[in-house]
Amino acid sequence: MREEGMRTVLMKGGLGFAAILGAMLGPAIARAEGTSCTDPTIIVPDGRITASTIPPGQTFYFKVSSRVGSSYSAEFHNTLGPGSQTPGTLIVYSDAGCTVSITPASTSSVDPGDDNGVRVAFTATTAQSRFALDNTAGSPITYSFSVSDTTMFSRSRRTASRSTPTARRAPTRRPWRQCVTRQGPRGSPTTDLRVRSWRRPRSPTSRSPRRRISSRSSSCPSAS
Predict the structure, then answer these.
(1) Does 210 lie in the same domain as 137?
(2) Do the domain assignments include residue 189?
(3) Kind of pairing, strands 50-54 and 28-29?
(4) CA within 20 to 30 Å of 21's CA: 127, 146, 166, 191, which one?
(5) What percentage of the chain has pLDDT greater than the value 70?
(6) In whole numbers, what is the pLDDT of the chain averaged over residues?
């Protein structure tokens, strides 16, 4: 009896662990979508996939908090149905009352193509975008949905500290001086003062090398 009890406890524990692992690794499951425009299902546009089932003749509504001018991609995919059966008719709205519809670009055929899904891309014109999915089939459809923010930022949108090039310090016109001691004609040492001046580059960010514009020699001051 004790062994059978322990076996039962281990089996229940294994099943519980398997259920938790499946929930962590598998897509999220929606328990009940919004059935009206004023009470939609909230979607976070981060690409996460949520699975659910839409009954026949039912319309589900979804909402995404969007940024004006940003690009988004929405996909509603029939996960278990036969070929070329989408989960329903998709309409995209730009207002809270689902009265102003927009015409998104269909990307279902863009590689990788989705014959069993509806994938659209659009640019948000308001702070919220809503979707209406209408199942016109005569049977329930198991499907998944996701929305992604696909906005691509250019280098001009970087912060000023990174986009503004740092000007290099321009060289000064201070001459370079050097005293050189050489052997004279009769073996006596002779010390000369050589002065060289340098021209600045054309601009602070120019990569052209500095050029010597003058060079002369004179006597070095005597050491005190």
Answers:
(1) no
(2) yes
(3) parallel
(4) 146
(5) 54
(6) 76
Give the β-pairing of 117-123 and 105-106: antiparallel
When mean pLDDT is compared across 121-135, 148-162, 205-219, the lowest value belongs to 205-219
Q: Which domain holds residue 181?
A: 176-219
> Which residues face 63 on adjacent strands?
42, 130
Q: Which two tokens stand for residue 198?
A: 């340098």
Residues in contact with 145: Cβ distance below 8 Å, sequence separation at least 6, in sequence order: 43, 49, 50, 52, 62, 74, 75, 76, 77, 133
Which phi-psi region, left, alpha or beta, contains residue 69 (left: φ > 0; alpha: ψ -120 to 50)? left
Of 178 and 58, more confident: 58
Which among 143, 157, 154 is positioned nearest to 74, based on CA atoms?
143
CATH number at residue 61: 2.60.120.380
Please report where in the chains the tokens 């149905």 appear, as a residue. Answer: 81
Phi–psi pair at 157, nearest 5 degrees:
-95, 5
End-to-end CA distance of the chain: 111
**Alpha-carbon gap, residue 78 to 47, rounded angstroms:** 17
Residue 144 sits in the same domain as residue 203 = no
At residue 183, does pLDDT exceed 60? yes
Within 63-205, residue ranges assigned H as helices are 160-163
Least confident segment among 65-69, 141-145, 171-175, 214-218: 214-218
Q: Residue holding tokens 């546009």?
A: 45
* Position 17 confidence tier, pLDDT thresholds 50, 70, 90: low
The domain tally of the chain equals 2
